[in-house]
Amino acid sequence: MPVGSCLCGNLKYEFTSEPVTKATCHCLSCRKISGSTNTLNLLLPEDKLQVTRGSPTKHTSMHESGLNLTVHFCNECGCAIYKTHEKFPGMVVVLAGTLDGPHGLEESKPEAELYAQHRVAWLPDFTWADQRVEF
Question: How many CA atoms, within 13 angstroms, populate the side-chain half-sphere of residue 116?
């Protein structure tokens, strides 16, 4: 069963299903959330994600798609753990970088690149992945 945590360890989670999809996202919101050029995301049914320690804090803002995006993060270290988006009711988007151990990331090879038009010029595209303009 995949498990993950925030930077300080006060927030821990696990999930009990395979991701519906795995995608990297270059949208402007994901850049702000990650502090990097993109995020690596695992889309899961909400009822398959269990927070096993702590209680995430939420922040909702308007995504560039025009819909609300809620980030769930640790209130101690600020590490974003997962997101929810109005376009995907009943689903969560786990930030794969929060998985514990290298095995989870090795299994998280993206099947798609979202908002590929926002990819920075020096970052090569993932030729094996479906290139999408939006979600």
Answer: 14
CA–CA distances in Å: residue 118 to residues 70, 108, 114, 134: 21, 21, 9, 10
pTM of the model: 0.93
For 63-117, how does the pLDDT look when each residue is reduced to its tens digit (9 = 90+)?
A: 988 899 999 999 999 999 999 999 899 999 999 999 998 888 888 999 999 999 9
| Sign, CA torsion 69/90/43/99 | positive
- Residue among 79, 87, 90 nearest 114 (CA): 87
Residue 60 identity (one-letter amino acid): T
Distance of alpha carbon 26 from alpha carbon 7, whole angstroms: 22
